[in-house]
Backbone:
């Protein structure tokens, strides 16, 4: 770690005018990465509360599960595979950024975005063919609540990926400037990992 | 005019808000037409969507998202610090990224809501001054006490602690600002949005929300649209506190000055570290509970509809899994303030510094294991009661450690009984009383007896008024000279303390008695036998209300014309007192180095931090290990 004993007064972007002193880095963790990790803890607790609802309605109140005539597990499994493969391409994008491979980075972010959109499209299509709505029963509400909450996170993730893509295509992401890709990437991995939990509890168990 | 609307600010915020309403109108009617819902135009639906979306348009208009949108569109973003620092009072009404400006914005807005929430309390006491109906009908009464509690919890106690810490904490750890200054600004601007939304519920068709601050389902699902104002406003207040907590955690972890190890941090920093952990982990639960209520209300979900398999008790479990930790969110930062004030004004090191820090973390952990003690009479499974009773009794131990250490800090200290110290000592006494009635309430038999009586009201006000509010006053008086550069009027401060202290007790102590005798809370009428006590309580509460005007007068007049305070009027060691009052725009010319503990009072020659430019000794500059 660099010793910031007497930092010269300079702003973050290196202008010559008088700005704030450079803050001491008291941890090896980067602040943006730490920020998104803490936010993900918060998000996990949000899902946790919906899982509490799932537990109370399925186990404590013993409402009929699964809602409707049974859930399309095979479709959801294929969809899970699609979402998980987008994590692989996301990682590839991140690695390419660190190696400054602009072409791979562009291909990677576009593939990730398309895979994520495909997941969302299939999920909405599944909703339209399920044969029950949230109004049907409490289990149906839990089903839509959890998958819908996850779907909302996919949308947020896609928005963040879109921002990264814009910056990548404007040539603003590279080995020294990849925070704007890394942080949405971490969030995207969280969205994917969370789907494994949602998929397991809703469709498999 | 056109140029004004393009610039971030109030004109653009207004224009965007109007645009937002139109968008919501289009969205509502469009969706209803697409799904063939009759009628196509439904004012409730438009209102509900507007409550969710118009605040975002407002925040965009006022300028919270400008930098990020520019960044996201791939344009060059230059951080020229143009939106940093305040040159005139007008700058406090703009989006600002300076933690000191945001801190003052937080504090002032929180006090505005304290006075509004306090007025609601006066209305409650006016209605309860005598049996029978005085001024308001029962439904309005329910609305008034609901908004009283909601405003004072979500828009006063929680945010004002964030405000005080916002101002003081970066200075204390030697950071030039918070880790995410723009997120900090967004966190602040969500607050007035939430507060105004709660107040606007009075104008909603069917009246304001009236289900108490707990808003239990299914009452909150079936209530008129006013309830949606609560449900959605709490989301904004919650998002604000999560964002601030995240910001504090990252700031504390990554931006401490060289030499500022965790065990050299002042206890206020420790307290906010613990509180922020609680917020990040617990607050999503109240968000989830309110999301479920919105879904039930607006889209016909069945989370809380037993007829279709829903579970009503689930609301209470999810709600209290947040809201019990929330009482520590409302108390731990105050613990930090008290530690600062006591050590400085007793001229002694904090007794058991490490145990003070560890007991904070113990409260954080235990805080998650006690939620169901709010539900002893809810009809949940009986077996949960006993473990919750035991954990609740256990949580008194770390709190007891703190009380013990504060008293031990005072022991043989050179006490300077000025205003901040009076509030701090008053806090210790009042909070201990509130803590004792808390342990009583943990006991299942007593809790069943006094559930929903004024005993609960007495307890909550001893911990939140005698506890949190006393620490807030201690902190505001303590850091007032730092924030304004001027000294408050000591005499008025003391009068404020004694009036509040005495009449606070006259107001709330008798509530224990009438509570045990069975006077129910949250009811606008009561039996004749409680008339005398209620009259005394009402009169005393009006004196408490009036005493806060002394505070207001003292703050405003001292801010304008008070005597110069100088950089360090309390002769304190922590870093924020080593810079000018108010501090320079970027806090420091160079980041100081920390060379010792924060509370070495009474140790000859003890220094907490040294500045490269003011202390020429080479030891001070070079020897600090930048870890």
Residues:
């Amino acid at each position: 770690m660099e010793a910031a004993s007497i930092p010269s007064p300079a702003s973050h972007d290196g202008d010559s005018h008088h700005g704030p002193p450079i803050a001491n880095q008291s941890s090896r963790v980067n602040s943006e990465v730490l920020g998104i990790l803490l936010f993900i803890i918060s998000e996990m607790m949000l899902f946790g509360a919906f899982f509490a609802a799932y537990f109370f309605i399925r186990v404590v109140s013993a409402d009929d599960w699964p809602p409707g005539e049974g859930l399309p597990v095979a479709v959801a499994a294929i969809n899970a595979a699609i979402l998980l493969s987008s994590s692989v391409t996301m990682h590839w994008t991140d690695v390419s950024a660190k190696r400054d491979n602009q072409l791979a980075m562009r291909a990677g972010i576009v593939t990730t975005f398309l895979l994520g959109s495909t997941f969302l499209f299939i999920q909405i299509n599944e909703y339209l063919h399920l044969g029950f709505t949230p109004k049907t029963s409490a289990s149906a509400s839990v089903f839509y609540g959890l998958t819908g909450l996850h779907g909302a996170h996919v949308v947020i993730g896609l928005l963040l990926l879109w921002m990264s893509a814009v910056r990548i295509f404007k040539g603003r992401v590279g080995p020294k400037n990849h925070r704007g890709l890394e942080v949405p990437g971490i969030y995207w991995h969280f969205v994917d990992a969370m789907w494994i939990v949602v998929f397991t509890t809703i469709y498999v168990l | 005019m056109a140029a004004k609307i393009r610039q971030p600010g109030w004109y653009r915020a207004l224009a965007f808000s109007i645009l937002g309403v139109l968008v919501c109108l289009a969205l509502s009617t469009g969706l209803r037409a697409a799904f063939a819902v009759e009628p196509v135009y439904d004012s409730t639906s438009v209102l509900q969507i507007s409550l969710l979306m118009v605040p975002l348009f407002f925040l965009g208009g006022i300028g919270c998202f400008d930098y990020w949108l520019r960044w996201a569109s791939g344009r060059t973003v230059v951080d020229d610090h143009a939106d940093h620092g305040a040159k005139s009072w007008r700058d406090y009404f703009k989006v600002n990224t300076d933690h000191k400006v945001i801190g003052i914005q937080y504090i002032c807005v929180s006090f505005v809501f304290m006075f509004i929430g306090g007025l609601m309390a006066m209305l409650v006491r006016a209605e309860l001054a005598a049996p029978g109906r005085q001024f308001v009908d029962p439904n309005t009464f329910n609305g008034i006490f609901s908004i009283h509690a909601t405003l004072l919890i979500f828009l006063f106690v929680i945010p004002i602690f964030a405000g005080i810490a916002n101002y003081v904490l970066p200075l204390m750890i030697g950071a030039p600002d918070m880790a995410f200054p723009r997120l900090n600004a967004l966190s602040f601007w969500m607050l007035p949005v939430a507060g105004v939304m709660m107040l606007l519920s009075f104008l909603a068709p069917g009246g304001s929300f009236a289900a108490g601050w707990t808003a239990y389902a299914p009452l909150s699902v079936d209530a008129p649209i006013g309830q949606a104002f609560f449900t959605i406003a709490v989301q904004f207040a919650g998002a604000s506190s999560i964002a601030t907590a995240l910001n504090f955690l990252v700031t504390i972890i990554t931006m401490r000055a060289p030499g500022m190890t965790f065990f050299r941090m002042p206890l206020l920093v420790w307290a906010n570290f613990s509180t922020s952990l609680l917020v990040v982990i617990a607050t999503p639960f109240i968000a989830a509970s309110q999301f479920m209520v919105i879904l039930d209300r607006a889209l016909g979900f069945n989370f809380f509809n037993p007829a279709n398999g829903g579970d009503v008790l689930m609301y209470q479990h999810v709600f209290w899994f947040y809201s019990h930790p929330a009482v520590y969110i409302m108390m731990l930062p105050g613990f930090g303030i008290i530690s600062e004030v006591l050590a400085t004004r007793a001229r002694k090191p904090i007794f058991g510094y490490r145990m003070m820090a560890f007991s904070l973390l113990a409260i954080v952990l235990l805080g998650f294991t006690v939620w169901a003690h709010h539900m002893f009479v809810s009809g949940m499974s009986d077996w949960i009661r006993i473990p919750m009773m035991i954990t609740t009794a256990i949580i008194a131990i770390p709190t007891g450690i703190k009380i013990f250490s504060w008293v031990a800090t005072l022991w043989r200290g050179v006490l300077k009984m000025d205003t901040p110290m009076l509030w701090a000592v008053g806090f210790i006494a009042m909070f201990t009383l509130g803590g004792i009635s808390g342990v009583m309430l943990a006991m299942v038999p007593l809790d069943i007896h006094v559930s929903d009586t004024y005993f609960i009201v007495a307890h909550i006000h001893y911990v939140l008024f005698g506890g949190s509010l006393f620490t807030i006053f201690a902190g505001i008086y303590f850091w007032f000279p730092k924030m304004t550069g001027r000294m408050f009027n000591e005499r008025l401060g003391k009068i404020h303390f004694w009036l509040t202290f005495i009449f606070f007790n006259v107001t709330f102590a008798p509530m224990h008695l009438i509570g045990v005798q069975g006077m129910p809370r949250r009811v606008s009428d009561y039996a004749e036998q409680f008339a005398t006590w209620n009259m005394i309580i009402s009169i005393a509460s009006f004196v408490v209300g009036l005493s806060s005007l002394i505070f207001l007068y003292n703050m405003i007049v001292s801010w304008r014309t008070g005597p110069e305070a100088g950089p360090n009027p309390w002769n304190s060691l922590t870093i924020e007192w080593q810079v000018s009052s108010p501090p320079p725009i970027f806090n420091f010319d160079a980041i100081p180095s920390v060379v010792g503990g924060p509370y070495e009072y009474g140790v000859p020659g003890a220094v907490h931090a040294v500045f490269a430019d003011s202390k020429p000794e080479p030891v001070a500059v070079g020897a600090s290990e930048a870890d």
Summary: The radius of gyration of chain A is 21 Å. Confidence is low (pLDDT under 50) at residues 1-17 of chain A. The longest helix of chain A spans residues 138-169.
